[in-house]
Each structure stands twice: as C-alpha cells, then as structure tokens.
Amino acid sequence: MAAPKGLLGLPSFLAGVAALFWVFQGAALTGFLKWWCVGPRNDVEAALRFLKAFFRYRVVRLGDRMPCTDRKLVYLANHRGWADFFVDMFVTGARAVPLSRRAVGMAFPAFTSSLLCIRSILLFNRAGVRDTEKFNRWLDEELSQGPQNSLLVYPEGTRSQKHESLPLKRGMLRYAHTRQLPVQVVITAGKEQVLNERRRSMHFGRTLVTGCSEVLESKNYADFEQFMTAVQALWDETWAKVHSASPDGLPELVPSFLTMHYTPAQLAAESLALAAWAAVLAAICSLAGFTALAVAVLPGGALLLAALALWTGTQLQLGSLQLERSHRFAAFEAEAAAGSLGSPAAPPGREVARLLPRLWQLPW
C-alpha cells in the first residue's frame, strides 16, 4: 500500500517541494521579500514567512525558554527531513547560519544561491573533511564575516524519523568545545508532518511543538568527554519532553528576527540570483502551459487535463483536512488500546454500536 499511497499524495508533495525550491522567487512575487528596498531588511525572514504562510503551520512553545538570542552560540536541532531547513530557521529567528552538506546546494540551487549571496548558509563537503582544524578555521572565518554569527547544526548527523533520537555525533560538539561556545538544544516535534520526502507527503496546517533547553556553557568543562556527556543528557531530556507533549493549550512561539544591513554587493548578487532563477521559473511555467495546450487538442486530452487538475486539487485539499483527523485519530487509537471504548468480551455487534458514534466525530 505504501507505493499507491505515495503516488496518490504526489501532487501535494510536489507542490511543497516547489514552494521550498522557489522560496525566494515566491517571496519576491508575493511581497514578503521587498527586493526593491535598499535599506535595512531581512530576506531570510521574508522567505521563512512565505513558507510559513504557504504550509500554514504553527509552532507552539513548551515551557518558558526561548531560543537564546543575545549571544553567539551553537543551536543543536533534531534532524527529521527537508522541513528542518525552514522550520528550525524560523524557530531560531534566522539568527544562526545553518551548516549543510554541499549536496543540499546542488539539490536546491534556487534558494541556496540567494542564501549564499547574503552569507546566510554554509555548505561543506562532508566526505572531504580530513583536516578538522582547517575546517574549524574555515567556520571561524565564515561566521566572522556573515550577518549572523551563531551556528545551526544537526548533531545526529543524518535524517531520522524514528521514535527515538540517534546518538549524537562528536564533530560539531568538539568545535563548540574548542571555541568555548555555549550550546542550546532546540527540539521541534512534527516537522516531518509538514513535508516528508521519505513518504512523499505534504500537509497544511500542522501544529509543531518546540522545546528549548537551558544554555550549556562549554567553557565550564575542561574535559570534552564530560561536556559530551552533559550535552547528551540535556538532549535526551529535551527530546523526551517535547515528543511527549500535547500542543493543546501551549502558547504560540513568536521568534525575534534581526534587521539586516546587507552590503550593496550582497544585494546586487542576490538580485541577480533572484532574476536568473525567476527567468528559469518563467520558462518552466511557459513550457508547462504549451504542453497543456498541446495535450488539450488531442483526443481525450481535455478530459485528461481535467482529471489531472481534479487529482491535484483533491490532494491539496486532503493535505488540509488530514490534520485534525490525525490528531483525533491518535487519541482515538490510544483510547481503543486502553480498552476504554468497550469491553473486550462484548459481542461484535454491540462493539460496533459503541464505536460508530466515536468514529463519526473524526472529520473524514
């Protein structure tokens, strides 16, 4: 069933991927990104708000702690999927530079080119890091030149959608320790429900739960192993709290964004990247339009296009409807597993009569 289900949800998934791929062009066309303004602005914030409006997701905060914004530090986030990019940057107020593999830049060149122009992303070749100290010096240099001087990393090292965390890798934690940078764990549950490349699914209107740990001072640990143990314990504690929390009644997280002062060279480079990829987008849209016209004149072509449009529209609508159903269905399953929906010894007919009113409450 996995393959047909993934195929049925393909239109909504591709719409989500397109929004992510063309995020800066979408933000510019919808007015989120004020590309005509030469004064202070934050183009990363504009792109993130465009994606938040597109996916219509909400982030609620567990506890009183917020991502630390008054000092240079390393944010440690959980790695779930492609949605990590925009959700974690939004949660941290785009105050940190995400450290990503070079393959990300190759897969999503439209938005990474704009981020590179304003020095708001760092791309590296993970397989090519042989001289650790040289790599660390490169990080120091890049962070000293960019508008953001904090770092956003994923210490699990790889994407995982398991119900438990992966053991933390040492690389970036050792960097934080050698540079005496404080670290803060920022865990967000449910990111893979927004955009999931493994299941080829996308949903609108998800509510995500974010929890932040206390800021851990690496300078207080002379020994790296002790620091590593403390980080792992803090990570496990935050992970458990966030993933066991219900979003009901939690306050919405309102991040604090910086006002950036981009240089004329940065603005010129970004404008060029925006225009170049906008031209590519226009060419793709034109090609798609001509292809649709060519198909429409074929026998049965108009019917095929209508079916395709209906399929796409239905899947996009289902992306909105499945949210509340999933939350209520999870509660329904938990109640059923606990045996509170009826006695196991009850006759099947009576058991069905008990279940039908509860099933009716689910927004199928």
Automatic annotation (TrEMBL):
Keyword Protein transport belongs to the record: no
Entry annotated with the keyword Transmembrane: yes
Top-level taxon in the UniProt lineage: Eukaryota
GO molecular function, one term: acyltransferase activity
Domain Phospholipid/glycerol acyltransferase: 73-191
TM region positions: 103-124
Keywords: Membrane, Transmembrane, Transmembrane helix
Signal peptide: none
Pfam families, per the entry: Acyltransferase (PF01553)
Protein name stated in the entry: Phospholipid/glycerol acyltransferase domain-containing protein
Organism: Chlorella ohadii
